[in-house]
Amino acid sequence: MADDFLLDTDDLTRRMDGAMANLRTEFASLRTGRASASMLEPVMVDAYGSMTPINQVGTVNVPEPRMVTVNVWDKGLVGKVEKAIRESGLGINPQLNGTIIMLPIPELNEERRRELGKVAGQYAEHARVSVRNIRRDGMDQIKKAKADGLSEDDQKFWETEVQELTDTYIKKIDAALENKQEEIMQV
User: Which residues form the Ribosome recycling factor domain (predicted)?
Assistant: First the structure.
């Protein structure tokens, strides 16, 4: 029965790719002294009774290298969008101009750069934990197959495959973190 056991490594790879994609999104939200529309992606606005991404309540633009604007479509939501930006932890002070919210991006000081580096490290650790959880799921599948009669050689083979996949993704996460921290510390 277990002789035909085949671990779905494509599924594990897909899930680990998802963890990497999530990490890239979180890294994009960290400002590095340059204005970027992606820095507002994680901001959620309490609109119409549910939490809504900011890009679904207005248009996010980058008119200048140090300015992001949000043109809110519904006048009634301007206050809620401003509040969501203030509470997002981005460290940006929004300025209102009618239905347009302007976000001037200040120059980063050394202390703020270090804080952002720590936040990037936390994001990377969350991604590592996700990858390890996926690894654990794969190992649990192998243990279940072992209980159903999988040979010890096959068990070792699949465990090695899962561990190598995990190691590869942990290295990718570490490399992405190193690149992001270098980018943050650039003056």
Answer: 23-185
